[in-house]
Amino acid sequence: MSKRTKEILSNMTLEQKIYHLEQLPTATFLTGGTYDIVTGPESKLKLKKDMIYDVGTTLNLVGAETMIDATSNYLNGSKYKIPLMIMQDVIHGHRTLYPINLGVAASFDRGLAKELAQMAAKEAALDGMSVTFAPMVDLVRDPRWGRVMESSGEDPYLNGEMAKATVEGYQGDMGKYNIAACVKHFAAYGAAEAGRDYNTVDISERTLREYYLPAYKSAVDAGVKMLMTAFNIVDGVPCVGNKHLVKDILRDEWGFDGVVISDYSAFEEQVTHGSCEDKKEAAYNAMMAGCDIEMVSSCYAEYLEELINEGKITMEQVDKSVLRILDLKEELGVLDNPYRSVDVEESKRVQLCPEHRALARRAAEESAVLLKNDNILPFSKDVSSVALIGPLGATGEIHGTWHCGGKASETISVFDGMKSILGDKVKYAQGCYAEYDSEDTSLLDEAVELAKNSQCVVLCLGEKQEYSGESYCRTDLELPQIQYKLLDRILEVNKNVAVVLFTGRPLAISRLDKTAPAILNMWMPGTEGGNACASLLFGDSVPSGKITMTFPRTLGQCPIYYNHYTTGRPKAQEDDEKFVRFTSCYLDVPNSPLYPFGYGLSYTSFEYSDLTLSNNTMNRTDTLVASVKVKNTGKYKAKEAVQLYIRDVKGSCVRPVKELKGFEKITLDVGEEKTVSFEITEQMLKYWNRDLEFVAEKGEFQVFIGKDSTCKPFASFMLV
Ligand code: GLC
What we know:
The protein is α/β, with parallel strands linked by helices. It contains 20 helices and 26 strands. The chain is globular. Among the domains are: 18-346, Alpha-Beta Barrel (TIM Barrel), CATH 3.20.20; 606-719, Immunoglobulin-like (Sandwich). Helix 6 links the parallel strand 4 and strand 5 (180-186). The relative contact order is 0.10. The protein has an 8-stranded parallel sheet. A 6-stranded mixed sheet has the order 11-16-15-14-12-13, sandwiched between helices. The longest helix has 18 residues, at 315-332. The chain binds alpha-D-glucopyranose. Alpha-D-glucopyranose is lined by residues 59-60, 89, 133, 184, 263-264, 470.
């Protein structure tokens, strides 16, 4: 806190302090805004009309001019004229969109993640933004959940590395082109049962701490300014009112004294959950937990004064929350300039500028994952004719549902991208519709005819972007039958087919894996997706992405993830394809996934050799070094994400069969060889034991280095 914010606080009335903890849509303050807070959609909020212009923060609006309008109207209407802090979901880009986060994570490139966040922050800041509700760091294991697309995947270490890089990218030195980050959703939102959004989360404290909390902690350690609580319960209590989670762990154990905000209307949803009698108890629980800002509900406004008068909440608690908000406003500079970095002219120059498009394109290229390639790709640019087919081939709707200021009209489709390289050698036919329940075969024949008369085929299949994202959960992870019908018909007339997959989640595409000669997963690649895709298909760039969330053979295997426990009856890997009674397996499907964590192909090949470990004994203060030589033995200069895994062979609690503990992405020219080394310290070996102590227990540890999570151990050491 500063002298200035303390002085502002001392001049605030109780009513003003309480309203400073409320958050409304920014559109509330737009000239002629539809969000008439008294009669509009938010009229259910019991807010005093004469205090609406003294809420402390707002959310969700894009555009420099609209920000100026809303801010001006707010200041004109406000009695106390403390400037707003304006927040927005800048999840994977503001106007220049890059791949969904599950794609950026697949790049295994910390530096890229940071650069992308820096770019997004600059675009958002110039449009008047102060805070982004990102990074989303929820660990995910169930691809039915629509929000896996926002996550970095199933591994706590990788999630933490991406969280750190992203927070640093957004916040930088908190200068003009930076914005404050808000890590979310605390906590374990990704553990929703059955992959159904907002559903029950029921995990042990040990699992919570071992898998779901580390990435939030990485964001806190990286200096994140804000944190958002999740909709779900943890141990039976909704996060927003969960004292153990927010006060005991976040505030007291981790020492986080930043701003905590609820998710949208989550305060009031405590009543729906059944953990609170009414909004008064909801306000009490949220304040006792340590939640500062109430996102678009009115429990604080309606009941905080009463709770203070009853002595249940102290003025000191309220002051602390208000001060956290004022201090962040001061750090962001809005107390000096209510319009902060908004700049209409500079914004026009910067949004979608060539440098930003180039970075978004690089990200889309590095996030793409080559899942299969039977010597089909890359196609030659000398090809005489290319058929581009599929419902996702000529659309700009490939940027995901958190598209913020991004527009489909500004997004490069695959058709656009391929025409840039091939001119009129590429022809397009839609072939079918993208709706998962479509049975319309009326477009098939035209597409088959085009495929028949073309030298090669690029077939764009997968999910519409609306099939993943908040609330967009699915119970069927296969491709729609109509898309398989199209693929089968095309393969009858042309074998030179590469499938481009668009998806916001791992799909159970076993049938596609069996029939398609090549599969390039582009995720939802963003504004430059089409150019990146064309560049990869025709060899101007080489795929290097590796999945960070397991692709199942079938939904029936889910949840399926690489860092699982062995069980007391594991089925031997060599028996994977067969049923072995009385082992942990299925009658009908192998235990192995379709594609494992860390998997991704290249156009070149890499040879791993000389795996060495500096010592086979480790004291607590030692640092061991695990090294490997990696050689590019193929025909293309390419990148490779080299991965380090460690297995704690025995613990007072069972331990995973392996855990990612390091990764490094290297670039190798044809024939080039590099040595990659990883340091191993005691800190990396710690885990939450049966007594909930974070310790490294003595004993044997196995070390793995490889191209994905199926690598075998090459050495072990004893921690003494
Ligand atoms: C949504 C999301 C959250 C987002 C917030 C504001 O419901 O759960 O991730 O930041 O509301 O848009």
